[in-house]
Write a structure and sequence with these properties.
Helix content: 25-40%
CATH topology of the largest domain: Rossmann fold
CATH superfamily of the largest domain: P-loop containing nucleotide triphosphate hydrolases
CATH class of the largest domain: Alpha Beta
CATH architecture of the largest domain: 3-Layer(aba) Sandwich
Largest sheet: 9 strands, mixed
Strand order of the largest sheet: 11-10-12-13-9-14-15-16-17
């Protein structure tokens, strides 16, 4: 386990060189000849591959980043600006990993110099050769062969060369039962299953790392097998066909010649029933999602909104700013009719992930969110009942008398 480092402003996690030495001695590790040769080969290969983070990239982690702390070497070339740096304070000394929602600094590792940090940042972008980072193209997003997402940047856009690898292999095969735990979780899990099986349009929001993508991925197993899934992403992250190879699933992604809006528009030209969006990040895409809600039987997507009001406001403003609507009231009504359920995910300061609340978007109530479930005091509690309109819609999409079970579950009748 990483050590806790306490400062005046709180606690963070770090694994130091002393921690590694202590573990090594405590475990009484004795390397075989083949293991020694493997380490030597790694040392040689570091100069060609991904350097000191090469083995980390293959570990079951949620993310890896480099260059996101410390001072760039060139800053110290200016006299009088800063004191002489000490080892560990350079940008090329900063390596972090994310595990179970917690960021951990690996201070026992370093790229050694800024040139190596620059080389590794470029090397992480090599898959399918998307191009070079340059003064005029100072950041890029790409995927790696294993499905990880890479964001890389360089000066003058950023203070130093830096990269962020978001890994998704650590969340494969997750079920909703594994993601929603604690007192009262069983009721929330059942509700989520019914919402998805009922063909509802579901927005999953929350901060970065709060578990939005993981939850949406887990929901797919409850989408009707009769539905053909069409997924739009900036880079391939969900990899649904790895977990559901027999389902009718096709994913589109952005390219230099096709943006997310054009990719979504292509959905209309396929036989897709269910549209999924890895992350809605611009107003053009948001406006088109509202339009597509009228022709798709089901939608699931993620967004960074932290409240139901901010979610609805973002999409309303998207319709207004793109010129789709000029009347604010009409835009608000259109957004309210496009969404059914809002699931808000949250991560606390210790990395614990949970569903903060689940709300129904009720058009008849001005598009406000009626809270159905809330996480409070360490437990989930039901705070409201879905409207009769929503229950009827869910029943229409379910087979074998399941509609009656849905009504009985939520109303107790």
């Amino acid at each position: 386990m990483p050590g806790e480092v306490r400062r005046e402003d709180g606690v963070y996690f770090e694994i130091t060189e002393e921690d590694i030495s202590r573990i090594y001695e405590a475990e009484h590790i004795r390397l075989s000849t083949s293991e020694i040769m493997e380490i030597l080969c790694d040392e040689v290969y570091e100069g060609f591959g991904h350097g000191v983070v090469d083995r980390l990239r293959d570990c079951n982690l949620e993310g890896i980043s480099g260059g996101a702390a410390g001072i760039p070497e060139h800053v110290f070339q200016y006299k009088g600006m800063l004191a002489e740096p000490s080892p560990g304070n350079y940008a090329h000394d900063s390596i972090f990993v994310m595990l179970n929602g917690v960021t951990i600094r690996l201070s026992f590792m370093s790229f050694g110099n800024e040139q190596e940090l620059r080389r590794v940042t470029k090397a992480l972008l090599r898959f399918e050769a998307p191009g070079e980072l340059s003064y005029y193209r100072p950041y890029m997003v790409n995927d790696m062969k294993d499905g990880s997402r890479v964001f890389a940047c360089r000066p003058p856009f950023s203070e130093s060369w830096a990269f962020f690898v978001r890994k998704f292999d650590s969340v494969e095969e997750k079920k909703v039962e594994e993601l929603v735990v604690g007192e009262g979780a069983e009721s929330v899990i059942t509700a989520i299953k019914y919402f998805v099986r009922g063909g509802l349009h579901i927005a999953i929001t929350g901060a970065q790392g709060s578990g939005k993508t993981t939850l949406m991925k887990a929901m797919v197993r409850y989408i009707s097998p009769k539905y053909n899934l069409r997924i739009e992403e900036s880079v391939f992250e969900l990899w649904m066909r790895k977990e559901f190879p027999r389902r009718n699933i096709l994913t589109f992604r952005e390219t230099e010649s096709v943006n997310s809006t054009e990719g979504l528009d292509a959905f209309r030209k396929t036989d897709g029933n269910c549209l999924m969006m890895g992350e809605i990040g611009n107003i053009q895409t948001a406006a088109l999602m509202i339009e597509l809600s009228q022709v798709s039987e089901q939608q699931l997507f993620t967004h960074h909104a932290m409240t139901t009001e901010k979610l609805l406001g973002y999409f309303r403003n998207a319709l207004l700013r793109t010129g789709t609507y000029s009347d604010e009231r009409m835009a608000q009504e259109q957004v309210a009719e496009a969404f059914d359920i809002h699931v808000l995910c949250e991560k606390d300061i210790n990395g614990k992930r949970y569903i903060k609340q689940i709300s129904e978007i009720v058009p008849e109530e001005g598009g406000t969110g009626r809270v159905l479930y809330r996480y409070s005091g360490g437990r989930y509690e039901m705070t409201g009942v879905p409207t009769k309109t929503l229950l009827c819609r869910m029943a229409e999409h379910m087979e074998g008398g399941a509609g009656e079970k849905v009504s009985a579950f939520f109303t107790g009748v």
